[in-house]
Amino acid sequence: MAGDVTLVLGVEARWVKSTGYPCNICGKVFTMKYNLNTHIKGKHFNIRHKCPICQKEFTFQSNMLTHLKNALYDRHINGLTCKLCGQALYDIHGYSCTICGKVFTEKFNLRTHIKGKHLKITNRCHICLKEFSFPGNLARHMKQCHSNIIY
C-alpha cells in the first residue's frame, strides 16, 4: 500500500479484533489503518507541511491548502477571488446551501451538508447508539466493532 509508514518501521500493521490497529511506537490504537499511518507520520516522523506565505506548519497537507486558500482568497457564490489581485481563481457553478450560503460542486455533497449540519440527521448504530455523518462510516463501524454480533 502506497504511503504505508508501518512498513518503513519493518512491521506490517495488523488489525487486532478487540482493539484495532496499535501504534508499535507508543501503543495508541486506531480503528483505521489510514489514521495509524497519519499518526505515525505526524507524531513520530514529525512530517509537516508549511504554508509558503506565513510558514505555519500543518500535519495534513489538506489543512495547509485550506489555510492557504482562506488566506489568499475571498469566497463568493461564484467561486474564489484573489485578495491580492482581484482575479477569480475559478468559478463554482454548483449548488449553494440556502441556509448558510456554502457552495458545493456536487449536489450529493450539498444534501449531505444540509442533513448533517443543519438538520442534524445522522446514521446511528442500533447496537451502541454511536452516530455517524455518512452511511459508509456506519457500515465500517458495524464491520469493525460489531462483526461478531448477529443482527
UniProtKB/TrEMBL annotation:
It comes from the Eukaryota. Keywords: Metal-binding, Nucleus, Repeat, Zinc, Zinc-finger. SMART domains: ZnF_C2H2. Gene3D superfamilies: Classic Zinc Finger (3.30.160.60). Residues 21-49, 95-118, 123-148 form the C2H2-type domain. Its main location: nucleus. PROSITE patterns: ZINC_FINGER_C2H2_1, ZINC_FINGER_C2H2_2. This is C2H2-type domain-containing protein. It comes from Lottia gigantea (Giant owl limpet).
